[in-house]
Amino acid sequence: MQLIIFDLDGTLVDSLPDLVNAVNAMMAEHQRPPVARDVVAPWIGRGSRWLLQQAFAHHGIDSGAPDFDFEAAFARFMVHYANHLIGETVLYPGVAAALAALASQGTRMAVCTNKPERFVAPLLRAMGIEPYFGAVLGGDSLPLRKPDPAPLLHLARHFGVSVGQCLMVGDSRHDVDAARAAGMSVVGVRYGYGGDADFAQSPPDAVFDSLELIPPWLARQGLHLATARLH
Ligand SMILES: O=C(O)COP(=O)(O)O
Ligand SMILES: [Mg+2]
């Protein structure tokens, strides 16, 4: 693989506690009780607007109603998330080691997340992994976001590689759907927010419990391809 494109939330970082803190700061502003982490988890992966809409809907608030100022609420949510960006967020086990192993093999890497772009570089920097990535796209970097293939195709073009030379790594069906639509290979991580339920709907080529299993899997794939070429 020439380029590995990583999803962020649920794949590289466990940002659920901070996203929940931001959601619940919003709920408090709207006189609603906090939402539990396991309720919020499946709402992550389709972008911040969708996450906020789900939280309002959970408490019976129609954020699409004509008299509801969703843009004002979204702006408040962005302020809360900026305040909670790196409070409790951590790298998943094995991420640092896997990125180091891939970088040492000369693999180029990028991040494609639906999280708003302004948060992505500060978060990667705080986690100590920013230097690994040659490009980063957020959910508002382009007119279309995952599951649309546009950001993945944009990254392939940016690096000057074909889609057949790209691997997407993600935790949700939106990652799988985007990769399939782009014509890229895709593997899933089971520990994130989509999990087996998402992968049953949109099956990746392989599913792993740790990113550390990806470099040896890639090596085996390379071996298989080489063997196939010999025959
Ligand atoms: O939905 C989000 O805001 C982020 O999601 P992603 O990093 O999993 O794309
Ligand atoms: Mg994700």
TrEMBL record:
Biological pathway: Organic acid metabolism; glycolate biosynthesis; glycolate from 2-phosphoglycolate: step 1/1
Cofactor(s) needed: Mg(2+)
EC number: 3.1.3.18
GO cellular component: cytosol
Protein purpose: Specifically catalyzes the dephosphorylation of 2-phosphoglycolate. Is involved in the dissimilation of the intracellular 2-phosphoglycolate formed during the DNA repair of 3'-phosphoglycolate ends, a major class of DNA lesions induced by oxidative stress.
Name of the protein described by the UniProt record: Phosphoglycolate phosphatase
Family stated for the protein in its record: Belongs to the HAD-like hydrolase superfamily. CbbY/CbbZ/Gph/YieH family.
Biological source species: Hydrocarboniphaga daqingensis
One Pfam family in the UniProt entry: Hydrolase
Keyword Disulfide bond in record: no
Cited InterPro entries: HAD-like_hydrolase_sf, HAD-like_sf, HAD-SF_hydro_IA, HAD-SF_hydro_IIIA, HAD_sf, PGP-like_dom2, PGPase_prok
Gene Ontology terms for molecular function: metal ion binding; phosphoglycolate phosphatase activity
Annotated positions binding Mg(2+): 7, 9, 171
Alphabetized UniProt keyword annotations: Carbohydrate metabolism, Hydrolase, Magnesium, Metal-binding
